[in-house]
Amino acid sequence: MEPRNHTHFQHFILLGLSEDAELQPVLFGLFLSMYLVTFTGNLLIILAIIKDNHLHTPMYFFLSNLSFADICLISTTVPKMLMNIQMQNRVISYEHCITQMYFFLLFTGLDHFLLTVMAYDRFVAICHPLHYTVIMNPRLCGLLLLVSWLLSVLQALLHGLMVLRLSFCTELEISHFFCELNQVIQLACSDTFLNTLVIYFAAGVLGVIPLSGILFSYTKIVSSILKIASAGGKYKAFSTCGSHLSVVFLFYGTTFGVYLSSTPTKSSSSSAIASVMYTVATPMLNPFIYTLRNKDIKQALGKLCS
Predict the structure, then answer these.
(1) Averaged pLDDT, 226-247
(2) What is the sign of the dihedral through the CA atoms of 276, 164, 7 and 110?
(3) 44-48: long-range contacts at Cβ-Cβ below 8 A with a sequence spacing of 24 or more?
(4) Burial of 163 from C-beta contacts in 10 A (0-12 / 13-18 / 19+)
(5) Are residues 105 and 181 in contact, defined by beta-carbon separation less than 8 angstroms?
(6) Fewer beta carbons under 10 A from the terminal one: N or C of the chain?
(7) Phi, psi (degrees; rounded to nearest 5) at 292
């Protein structure tokens, strides 16, 4: 007898990071603190950029959108986790699970594309400084942002539609604190070959292509910086892209670290613990990286707070 799709009545169980009852208050306090810091830090950056006319440049335009994406990214997973701990209820409906997975993929993809666009912005600023304002005009900036959104929406929608075709026969447990794509697919009782194929295709689009663009941009940037005669000039040129480079290393380092060193299984929560690095820690650290290394952001935040 073929398995039927009972997804309209299906519920999943999010096992979270730990089933230890004594550890739940600690996890609740820790993740609540991280969420508040991330939300407040990124919101302050957005407000500072909006209010300070000196920051109405392409670099800070993309930075404000990256901060917005980070707020949305962490808001798709952590609030549900906190509610589950508080209510002592780990059930998530099928519809809510698919919705959470869709928005997580959307804002993760948006982070990838925005980091690539920001690398291109730094490439133009350092390698073609005299033509920067002409090349990075408002129309191009708006177009790059629109393309980033469209690609992110399409890849998230593609994964979502591929999951909708799967059958889930019984109440199932997800060894994660949110509905992570690989974990959900592993729990299907129908053929998942096409889903796996789409995952590899999307990994090429979201991983290889954007990262190749970033590496190409920074290869040209480093080459241009080395041609500068004075040490002061080299430092000034590199400082304009130091914050972005730090975020790139942090984001891609934690992402690849999770998927290369962790093998998601139904019985282990190791991948869930590793995923905290790029789903929670990275969005939280981004405001600190840009604030500590950027004098303009410091001054804008000072004006905003005063």
Answers:
(1) 77
(2) positive
(3) 44/287, 44/301, 44/304, 45/287, 45/290, 45/291, 45/297, 45/301, 47/304, 48/297, 48/300, 48/301, 48/303, 48/304
(4) buried
(5) yes
(6) N
(7) -70, -30
pLDDT at 266: 41
pLDDT in tens, 76-122: 999 999 999 998 888 999 999 999 999 999 999 999 999 999 999 99
CA distance 52 to 302: 11
Least confident of 83-97, 186-200, 261-275: 261-275
Show the DSSP H helices in 129-230 as ranges. Answer: 132-135, 138-164, 181-186, 193-203, 209-226
pLDDT at position 265: 43
Distance of alpha carbon 272 from alpha carbon 281, whole angstroms: 13
Range among 40-54, 220-234, 264-278 rated most confident: 40-54
Looking at residue 304, its pLDDT comes to 81
Helix (H) or strand (E) holding 93: strand 91-93
Strands across the sheet containing 11-14? 91-93, 11-14, 172-174
Nearest residue to 275 (alpha-carbon basis) of 126, 61, 78, 132:
78
Q: What angle do CA 88, 93, 99 make, to 5 degrees?
A: 115
How far are the Cα atoms of 5, 92, 178, 295 from residue 96, in angstroms, in the given order? 17, 6, 10, 42
What percent of the chain has pLDDT above 90? Answer: 47
